[in-house]
Amino acid sequence: MSAFKNTGHLLRFAGLFVIAFFIFLIVRHFVVPKSFGEYGHYRGNAIKEDAARPSYYAGHEACEGCHSDVADKKSHGKHAHVNCEACHGPQLAHASADDPSKHKPVLPDTTVLCKQCHAASAAKPKNFPQVGDDHMPGMACKDCHNPHSPAMDQAPAEKTASTSKAPQGGKK
Amino acid sequence: MNGVEGFMYPNEIGLQWSILIVLYPYITGLVAGAFILASLVRIFRVEAVRPTYRLALLTALSFLLVAPLPLQLHLGHPERSPEMYFTPHSTSAMAMFGYVYLWYLMAVLVFEIWLDYRAEIVHFSKTKKGLVGFIYKVMTLGSTNVSHKALELDEKIGWIVTLIGIPSAFILHGYVGFIFGSIKANPWWNSPLMPVVFIFSAMVSGISAVMLLYMATTKLRGLKIDIACVDTIAMYLFYTFIIDFAVESLDLIHRIYEADESFRSLNFMVHTKLYIPHIVIQIMLGTLTPLILLAITQLFKLPEFVRKRIYVIAGSLIMVGVFAMRWNVVIGGQLFSKSFLGYTTYKLALVTKEGLLAAIALCILPFIFLYALQHFLPPWPEKDNTGVPEATH
Fold first, then answer.
1. Is A44 within the bounds of a domain?
2. Where do the domains of chain B lie?
3. Contact B32, B172 (CB under 8 A)
4. How much is the pTM?
5. Adjacent-strand bridge partners of A149
6. Residue A84 falls within a domain, yes or no?
7. Three-class SS state of B49
8. Beta carbons of A8 and B143 less than 8 Å apart
9. What is the phi/psi pair of residue A167, to 5°?
10. A113 and A99 in one domain?
11. Helix/strand/coil for A91
12. Preferred mutation among B141, B147, B339 to probe A, highest tally of A CBs within 10 A
């Protein structure tokens, strides 16, 4: 016993650590969300909460059901793999409405829209089509390019199929 | 774009890590360095520097308390920081560091200081009245056993704590270097030598900080500076500095010899944007000049007052130089593009959350803590004014 006679203060200090550790465990018990770690290092409920949030995008299948003409045109051009809503913005309200014409989407402004993807930048792959500010300044891109099938040197058959002659943006 | 030359990726134009992130390794480094100086007394039995032993411990504590604040201010949402402890993520170096920090604070520094001051604490708890007396009573943890045997035991335990404290201090600061050194996407940082460089520069800055503090506080209290003590500190400072210099040169030579694809870009940066902070301030003013000054004091027999002045100048230059080193690592590492084709500029704000004023406030704060601590736990070597019996012998 005498060996421990002078260790009282040390044991008290150690006791502080033990108490602090238990307080830590108790606080931890209350502040860590119950679903934490359910699937991984995050709150499991976060997934359910995210799933419960309203959707805004309809997905291109929803668009193509009604706009088969556009879908068809688009599928032959280079924009085939660019989704409708990448340009038109989220359209679930339009697509799921009883009368979609009441939720008519605003048409994108091509002077702004196209540059978001096509403005020239050294960070883009070399073979990605891109244009600088000197490419037809002061004109809307749709005046010459059809947004749904933007190539200028399309096969003549394609062009005559549309109601007007190129530039296709001319049809209004 | 303002301040951008050549080609920068958009996310590189604005710097994410500001002057606060410069302060963080700087302050942590002072903690580690001050502690190493204290260990000279405890472990390596360098009796000459005993007058700075307690001051070094209190300095380490004051700076350690401030060390996480730059991070808190930078990240915002301090109320979220405990989550790092509550739900620790074992693969996050940052998260694990929280434990290293806590360990170092509580199990090393606070414990060691408490052990060393116990005789005083018990004495004050009996003599001081009111709130102050009560605080001392709490600090005794209800044990007033300051018998010779108990203090002898404290001395032994203190030795062990310091012994554990040395690797802890290395881990504490080595980690800060690791955080940078392990970023493989950034060639300016990515180097396994980074933790070593950080540890040695930390020791250099911490030792000179305590040396300057000791000289300043002794002057302020109107007492005579113990020249043998300062001489010894300066000698160890010189040796540590040589190692630090060697390791940093090794890192530099390694980079120059390896000359990987980033080299041209980094070399260009060092000769343009980083020229003043890196070449002039860090290397010439902050490293070579104090090294030469300290070498002179080691080589020649100079009169006492000259030596003291040289120590003050060399110590101050070292403080500036090590700060510049942190600056060049943190800020320099964000000035060039991953494309190696462009450079941006860091604009230091003045009164924003991460501006100059906040940084200055954070630099002053440790001294306020130190001022408060020295009131409660007087670190001064001469014990006569407190009337406390010699505790540590």
1. yes
2. 18-330+348-376
3. yes
4. 0.78
5. A146
6. yes
7. helix
8. yes
9. -70, 140
10. no
11. coil
12. B141
